[in-house]
Amino acid sequence: MNAIDTDMIADTAPITLDEAMHFAWLEADLLDSAAYDEWRALWTPTARYIVPITPGATDFENTLNYAYDDAEMRAKRAERLVSGQSVSASPVARTVRLLSRFRLLRSDARTCELRCAQMLTEFRRGRERTYAADVEFVYLRGPGGLRIERKVIRLVNGTDALGGIGYIL
Amino acid sequence: MNIAVPTPPALDMLVQSDRARTTLYTDRALFEEEMVKVFENTWVWVAHASELAKPGDFKTAHVGLQPVIVVRDRKNAVHVHVNRCRHRAATVCEVAQGKTSSFVCPYHGWAYALDGSLRGVPFEAGYDGQLDKTQFSLRSLRVEEYNGLIFATFKDDIEPLVDFLGGAKKWIDLFIKQGAGFPLVSLGEHKFRFPGNWKIQLENTTDAYHFPLVHKSFLSAADRETEDSWDIMNKGGFVEDLGNGHSVMVMMPELVDLEENLDAPIPEKFEALAAELRADYPEEQVRRIVRAVGGCGFNLNLFPNLGCSAAFFRVLQPVSVDETEIRHVALGMAGGPAAANRARLRIHEFFQGPMGFGTPDDAEIWDRVQHGAQGGRDLWVMLHRGLSHEESLPEGGRRSDVSAETGMRAAYAQWKRLMGA
Question: What pTM was estimated for this model as a whole?
Answer without folding.
Answer: 0.94
